[in-house]
Structures are given as structure tokens and as C-alpha cells.
Amino acid sequence: MGNLYAVVLAAGKGTRMKSKKHKVLHSVCGKPIIDHVLDRLHELGCDRTICVIGYQGDTLREHLEKKHAVTLVEQKEQLGTAHAIMQAKDELASLEGTTLVMNGDHPLFTLETLQRLVRSHQEKRAAATVLTADLDDPAQYGRVIRNGNHSVQRIVEYKDASEEERQITEINTGTFCFDNQKLFSVIHEVNNNNAQKEYYLPDVLSLLLKRSELVHAVKVHDAGEAMGVNDRQQLAEADAYMRQMILQKHMEEGVTIVDTSNTYIEPEVFIGADTVIHPGTFLRGTTMIGEDCQIGPQADLTDMVIDDEVSIKYTVASGSRIEKETTVGPYVYMRPQTHLRKRVKIGCFIDLKKAELGDGTKVSHLAYVGDARVGKKVNISCGVVTVNYDGKNKFKTIIGDNAFIGCNVNLVAPVHVKKGAYVAAGSTITNDVPEKALAIARERQTNKPGYVEKLWAKRSQQK
Ligand code: UD1
Ligand code: CA
């Protein structure tokens, strides 16, 4: 491949979204639309990527500069897609190579499709190659007009098309490859004599043909990829399409998805073979899951690292690590920096935060363990609370191997229950407990024999 440049158009207002937020910052499968486009271009290995911004340029700039290596150029007035390309003239016009143009609102193209487009364009030494699609419902997309010998003649926008032209089902996806020099040699000739009084980029094709340049078309294999997002309906459709593509990829890799209509997996998630994903599960961010796991029903996991043979039910968890053969749930909330080592058992209604739990440790019922380092084979009984916060600062609880923390114990941090120690039920522990000691910190029980009858006798006299 010779030099490859990319221009992404994202200056338009996206009126049809009816949103305060910039259209390309809306998410598809948990990731902003523009990030899908720019990630593909990054994978494609573009030497230079330029993004044209305008409407809400500041918010978009802030987002793009944080995440992508792109050059931003501003289109002050949105006078059309050709006018948008002209804003990249200073950056590109002097360079030799291929320029790939994409709309910022098309999140679904695969790397393979873009590679096929670029390859075809370069092999045929075309001046321009347009990526097209055959759609059952071509909606308001621009239509591809071909002549008698079937070569591309021009593209007509929906608003300018005749009834007959609107019957054409082959549409312009807004993705093009151009010979960079040829693009910039004709683009200033585009005019705005059309229904929208805009400078249309697709008009470049007719201008090149007039100069006897080669113009080709490449069709996407899967028309689903061709979809642009202009309104909320298309946003939902794009999300559904990408979701199915992601699920399909995991199933091809040996993952069982019990209900594909009720499972939501973001693009960067990894799942090992023979893991079963049960319904109502959301796997987000950079979550990585090993083999032979049971995930869900109802697991909402973000940026998790999970080893093999782990089971997680009815759980919200983020930013944490879970080692082999550990079971979690039902009804667990796991906040970041939790680390569950091997064969840990986390039962029902447990809140964990910044807690490290050693091999074989159990927290079976109704407990809060936060800012804690817990050793191996510890039993944390029902209702235990690490009292980690004094209203201003957080303090740490340390529990040694083989310790036993009885029911309804408060561990007021900073505190250290050492190896093999026992803490009696109902204790509020404020001092360290030595190794193998039993700590009891509660009032002794007093029984008053026959007291209830005396009490009632007294009351009836008072009446
Ligand atoms: C465009 C194409 C149409 C194609 C469709 C595919 C034109 C004239 N029409 O139509 O043939 O079928 O995409 O989705 O190109 N933009 C700018 N500056 C502008 C105008 C637009 O940067 O002045 C950006 C928008 O932010 C958007 C992209 O260009 O990301 C396409 O613009 P949009 O208005 O959505 O074009 P469509 O009407 O969808
Ligand atoms: Ca569009």
C-alpha cells in the first residue's frame, strides 16, 4: 500500500437526532460512534487521519484529543460534505497517495471492508472508488446511478432524485477512496446548485469522469454494515446490528450465549471458550473472562479480569480481578480494586470495595468488606461490617489466614485480626486481636427469671 490518508467528516449538526449531544458522540455498543470509525482507521494503518469538526467543535475536540491521534481541522460553516473536505486542503493537497473519506456517523464498517475498498482502488489505479450497498430500504441515502455498461456515472442525493431514481436500491455509503492529488484538483469545481444548496462530495465523481478519470464502485458484502446514524431509530438499529455481530464472533470462538436477544457485550470484551453467558448479562469495557465460566443471569461487569471456572450471578462488578474457581452471587456489588483469589465464595447481598480476599475465603451472607486485606480460608459470617470510614478518612482492616469473624461483627478500622483468631458474634472490635485469641466485645447477657409476669402485674396495678 502506498501512502494512505483518511478524512473523517464530523462537522455537521445531526439535526435529526434532536439531541444536546453531538451525534457522533452517541454510543453504539457502549462506544461513541466516532470512536468506532477512528479505531478502524487506526487498525487500517493510515499514515495520517484528519477529522473535520465544526458544530459543537469544542466538545468534539476535547473527546478526540484525549483518545485518538488525529489532526483536527475546522469547518466554520457547514456548507456540505465537499466543502468539509476542502477544509483539509492545507493538510493534504500537496501529498501523494490515497485518501479514504468516511462519514463520522457510520460506525459499522469492518476492517475487512475498508481493506477491500482500499485494495481495489489501488489495484485498479482509480481516481475515485465509492463504497456502495444494496439496501432493501434505501431510505434517504444518495443513489448510485450507473450507465448502460454498468459503470458508475454519478450519485444523486435523495432530495434531488426523481421518482425513478429513488427506486434504485444501490446507495452511496459516504465512504470513498480518492487519488489524493486528483481529489484536490477538482474539488473546488463542485457547486451548490441542488435542493439543499450544499456542496456535495459525491459530485466529485462526475467531475472526475468528465476528465476521463477512472471511477469505480465496491459493494459491501453485508448491507447491514452500510448503515449511517442520523436519528434515534437508526441509532437503535446500528446498536442491534453491531451487538449481533459481536455475539456471533464470540459464538464462533466457542462461547455459549443462551439468549442472543438479551445479552449485551461491548466490542473490546474477551471471553474464553466453553464459557456460558446467561441472559440479562452486560459485559463492558475491557472485561476479560477465562474459559469454563458461568456468567449471569444478570451480571453487569465492567473492566473485569476473570480467570477460568468462575461463576457470577446477579452481580454488578467493575475494575476488579477474580481468580480461578471463585463463585460470586446472587446479589453482589463489587466496586473497583477488589481482588478475589482462588476458590473464594462470595454469597448473597455482599458489598465489596478495595478488598483482597485470599484463597478459599468465604463471605456468605449480608456483609460489607471494604478497604480490607483478608488472608486465606477466612470465614466472614453473616452481617459483618468493616467500619472503614470516620466521616473524613478511610482506614484499613487486615484479617489473617484462618481467622473466623462471627455474625454481626463490626471491625472498626484501622484494625488487625491476626492469624487463626476468632471474633465472637455481635462484637464491635476496636483493638487488634492477637493470633489464635478469641475476642469478645459485647455486654454479657443477664437473665431475670419470672420477670415478665412481675412486669405485667405491676402494669395492671397502675391502671
Ligand atoms: C451523505 C451523502 C449521501 C450518502 C450518505 C451516507 C452527501 C451530500 N451525501 O448524506 O450520498 O448516502 O451520506 O450516510 O455527501 N458533514 C460535515 N460538514 C458538512 C456537512 C456534513 O462535516 O458541511 C459531515 C456530517 O457531520 C456527517 C457527514 O458529513 O458525519 C455526512 O453528512 P450528513 O448530513 O449526515 O449527510 P447525509 O445526508 O447522511
Ligand atoms: Ca448521514
Please summarize what this structure is.
The chain is an alpha/beta fold. It has 10 helices and 37 strands. Strand 2 and strand 3 form a beta hairpin.
Protein architecture, described:
With 463 residues, the protein is α/β, with parallel strands linked by helices. The chain folds into two domains: 4-226, Spore Coat Polysaccharide Biosynthesis Protein SpsA, Chain A (Alpha-Beta Complex); 255-439, 3 Solenoid (UDP N-Acetylglucosamine Acyltransferase, domain 1). It is built from ten helices and 37 strands. β4, α2 and β5 (71-74) form a beta-alpha-beta unit. The model has no long low-confidence stretch (mean pLDDT 97). The structure holds uridine-diphosphate-N-acetylglucosamine and calcium ion.
The mean pLDDT is 97
CATH superfamily of the largest domain: Spore Coat Polysaccharide Biosynthesis Protein SpsA, Chain A
**Helix-strand category:** alpha/beta
Low-confidence stretches: none
Strand content range = 25-35%
Helix content: 10-25%
Spell out the key features of this protein.
UDP N-Acetylglucosamine Acyltransferase, domain 1, acyltransferase, 463 residues, alpha/beta, elongated, binds calcium ion, Spore Coat Polysaccharide Biosynthesis Protein SpsA, Chain A, 23-stranded parallel β-sheet
